[in-house]
Amino acid sequence: MFDVIVIGLGGMGSSAACQLARRGQRVLGLERFGPAHNRGSSHGGSRITRQAYFEDPAYVPLLIRATEMWDAIERDAGRRILYLSGGLMIGRPDSLTVAGSRRSAEEWDLPHEILDAAEIRRRFPTMRPEADDIALYERNAGLVVPEASVAAHLALADRAGADLRFEEPVLSWRANESGSGVRVLTADGAYSAERLVICPGAWASEVLADLRIPFRVERQVQFWFQPRGGIEPFLADRHPIFVWEAPGGRQFYGFGAHHADQRGVKIAFFRGGQTCTVETIDRDVHPEEIADMAAFAGHRVPDLPGEFLRAATCMYTNTPDEHFVIAPHPAHPQVVVACGFSGHGFKFVPVVGEIVADLSIDGTTRHPIALFDPARLRGQLVS
Predict the structure, then answer these.
(1) What distance lies between CA 134 and its chain's CA centroid?
(2) 66-69 contact pairs (CB < 8 A, 24+)
(3) Dihedral, CA of residue 19, residue 24, residue 27 and residue 29, to nearest 10
(4) Who contacts 285 (Cβ-Cβ below 8 Å, separation ≥6)?
(5) pTM for the full model?
(6) 292: nearest Cα among 245, 342, 250, 348
(7) pLDDT in tens, 96-125
(8) CA torsion angle for 187, 190, 193, 195 (degrees, to 10)?
(9) Which pLDDT value is given to residue 225?
(10) pLDDT for 66-75, tens place per residue?
């Protein structure tokens, strides 16, 4: 008999298993693939982290806590995860990327600077903004390495006594009507526990069908290019992460080159990918996709692209409003769900694990999570 079973050991599930085990819970973790795999949404070498959050100021307290927690996870696991290189949010003054970031920064008194186009070019000479572009610069922005995060959280969970099982897909789960106790059936057996945590990633529609939330899985492509003039100006210790919004709302983002990725620079579009499922996602990246990315980036960062190096696909699991779902299951208080991270969740990994552990053990959390109540989504359609 376990105290808690955690379904899914990717970014969020590994963090939840770690937090629960370190609080003395008897944890069983179940994952359909191997540890830190590349079949979901927790791979690709980098994810942006930032605090001046254009999506909604309500996220800022969670981001501040996550930054504190990354430091502790790195120290305890002995592994580098976080690189604070600074970050630029670029676009027209009224764009979501700039105006939304500025709103969050001002509301929470976050350190930031507003740069005009000339100042962007002077301080960051790889960038070529239009004359009416501006940027919010935030020094407490950068990147986290998703594979290193998953590996670190799994190692710490294992060290704290969690029983972690890989290559063991979950077939079904059932919660007792009494409000206590769950039963989970896998390809290898059946397990019982007092409580259940479900972090299903792109499998949310399948594993949490009873929530009746219209999740939309979106195929995303990450591209790596070798800059024409060499990698040195793009190294992470001198080049910020960026999110750049063009007129019309199309966004792309990029990273400085870091650790093992010091030959190429990673860039990608933010949203706009094809709707897919975990079974139908096209894992091939096609020449026209590479050409589209190259043309869009080259207009704004002229030394990119140079030589195309490689590409990889991953999946966003979008809710209709692109906000998360983190809450006790509405019909089963012994079940906690964390899903629908809509392409902007990885920077929250440590604090999501803390929230999930709070909800599983205590039924409540001190963190502000009203925005993530699944009740808001019932009956909605995905845009």
Answers:
(1) 26
(2) 66/347, 66/348, 66/349, 66/350, 66/351, 67/140, 69/350, 69/351, 69/354
(3) 30
(4) 221, 223, 311, 312, 313
(5) 0.95
(6) 250
(7) 999 999 999 999 999 999 999 999 999 999
(8) 40
(9) 95
(10) 999 999 999 9
